[in-house]
Design brief:
Layout (H helix, E strand, L loop, with lengths): L6 H8 L2 H22 L4 H28 L4 H6 L3 H17 L7 H23 L1 H5 L3 H33 L4 H25 L20 H12 L3 H31 L4 H29 L1 H24 L5 H38 L4 H29 L11 H28 L4 H15 L9 H11 L11 H13 L1
Helix pairs in contact: 1-8, 1-9, 2-8, 2-9, 2-11, 3-6, 3-15, 5-6, 5-9, 8-9, 8-12, 10-15, 10-19, 11-14, 11-15, 11-16, 12-13, 12-14, 13-14, 13-16, 14-15, 14-17, 15-16, 17-18
């Protein structure tokens, strides 16, 4: 008899987002700033650390998935669980390694290696824990509770993480490396405790019910599979446009988070405590905005919601620019309002691709006649991580290009201009690209219903000759292929699909 998912299990699973979301906010907002102002790394060196670590994470996800899937064949896997063993291993390692990211006075090589160690541990735990909803239950309602609780736990974790540095700046001084070190120590302990909760309060399915046999016989077959997946998925017009929204939007989101600390401290000349406080407020506001965007997506569709979010961001960017021209007496209040608006817009830009991803397999089925949900989920995750790597490279290269000086409290005018340009100008360019993609993306609930109804008709044995003109138009708009070439009729598409299946 299947075990019942209880409140204890929901809390246990949700707690992993102290690592998954809270730590990432700290790193995005403060770690590059710490390296370039207190560790004498130039912007290129700091960005290289993050770029390489995030690319490792992108490749490491499928590798780690393969390892955990097969770990039940080992004695440790049978003793501790094929997923939970790696969560258990993450408790001491994350508690030790995370503070080591925040030690000042070390070399580039030290920070590079420590960040690679951290990324390996992060990937190990996150990939293992992401499988737990499927391990614990097959009930859709229970899965929704688990993932929803995780989302809100992430908001709580991010809010706490955002406020911690500010409190320590007040205790040790805004220019004290100790404030950053103790931030790392405190949050590492919180993550360690949260992983103990995950380990104790979650469970895997009974080992006798696990039947797993992969066509991938070793990790060396994973890279060809990734390449085949990406090539095949890009044949779908809707998914290509979705990837523009997800990737470019992801670069914008992470770039905005990373440069905000520099903008507040070096351009607006505000205290780091102000940055910490504003980050905490905006993170909390994003959780409220998320509910509104969820409703908007269901009512108006993803592209329209994305445009609404973009307009909100544009308004906030005008506010940022106005603060650089005329610094008012109530600077902090106005800055907070602009930052909240920016975060609200980012919440929508972040959510729309999550909402749209569930529709991609339906569009693909119209082309191929097959269900390939896993392919689109995997490619989406891969490209999302690549986007975060690109963001780090863009921020580092931008700061270096405008002569940002490491280790100084007052930057030259060129660096101030460069930070302003990255904060205000770069988002306009990035989101203008996504606006064009939104205009071309025709995925609405009405078109989706027409497509699904036609696919169901064909699956039931209906003839393609009996299709309505409306269905043919919708197929072309969503798939990018003529109706006559869909439903597995195109030899070129079928060949690519078969290549992916062989790679799998």
């Amino acid at each position: 008899m299947a075990r019942k998912v209880t409140l204890k299990n929901i809390i246990g699973y949700a707690s992993v987002n102290f690592l998954g979301q809270g730590s990432q906010l700290l790193i995005s907002a403060w770690l590059m700033y710490f390296y370039t102002t207190m560790c004498n790394l130039n912007a290129i060196e700091a960005s290289l650390i993050f770029t390489m670590a995030r690319l490792l994470d992108a490749v490491g996800n499928p590798v780690m998935g393969f390892i955990t899937d097969n770990f039940l064949k080992t004695r440790l896997g049978r003793r501790f669980g094929r997923r939970k063993f790696f969560i258990l291993l993450g408790i001491p390692t994350i508690t030790i390694v995370f503070p080591l990211l925040w030690v000042s006075g070390q070399s580039f090589t030290y920070y590079f290696i420590m960040n690679l160690f951290y990324e390996v541990i992060f990937t190990m735990v996150i990939v293992s824990s992401s499988t737990l909803p499927a391990e614990m239950t097959q009930d859709a309602g229970d899965k929704a509770k688990l993932t929803g609780a995780k989302q809100y736990c992430g908001t709580i974790a991010s809010t706490i993480a955002a406020f911690i540095p500010g409190r320590l700046f007040m205790m040790y001084g805004k220019d004290s490396p100790d404030a950053f070190l103790y931030t790392g120590v405190i949050y590492a302990v919180m993550m360690g405790i949260s992983l103990v909760v995950v380990y104790l309060f979650t469970f895997e399915r009974d080992q006798k019910d696990v039947h797993y046999e992969s066509e991938i016989k070793s990790v060396w077959h994973i890279l060809p599979r990734i390449c085949a997946d990406v090539a095949s998925s890009m044949r779908v017009r809707t998914f290509r446009l979705h990837c523009v929204l997800m990737c470019i939007g992801g670069i914008f989101k992470n770039l905005t988070t990373g440069v905000f600390t520099y903008f507040v401290i070096f351009v607006l000349l505000q205290d780091p405590i102000v940055t910490s406080n504003i980050s905490g407020i905006t993170t909390f506001a994003s959780s409220i905005a998320l509910m509104l965007f969820i409703m908007s997506c269901y009512k108006y569709g993803g592209p329209t919601t994305y445009k609404i979010s973009t307009v909100i961001v544009f308004v906030s960017l005008f506010g940022y620019y106005a603060l650089t021209v005329n610094q008012p007496a109530n600077m902090v209040v106005i800055l907070t309002i602009c930052a909240v608006a920016n975060m609200v817009g980012r919440a929508g830009i972040d959510y729309v691709p999550v909402f749209q991803l569930a529709f991609m397999a339906d569009v693909d089925e119209a082309i191929t006649g097959q269900r390939r949900e896993g392919l689109f989920t995997g490619v989406n995750s891969l490209l999302s991580k690549v986007a975060t790597a690109i963001e780090a490279a863009v921020l580092g290269a931008g700061l270096q290009m405008f002569a940002f000086q490491p280790g100084v409290t007052v930057q030259p005018e060129s660096a101030v201009f460069g930070i302003t340009l990255i904060t205000v100008g770069a988002p306009f360019i990035l989101l203008s690209i996504t606006w064009i993609a939104c205009t071309r993306l025709k995925l609405t609930k009405e078109r989706h219903k027409i497509l699904v109804d036609e696919v169901n008709r064909l699956r039931a044995g209906g003839s393609m000759e009996d299709a309505t003109e409306e269905a043919k138009v919708v197929f072309k708009e969503l798939t990018g292929w003529e109706y006559k070439d869909c439903w597995g009729k195109s030899k070129k598409i079928c060949h690519e699909v078969n290549e992916v299946r062989i790679a799998h």
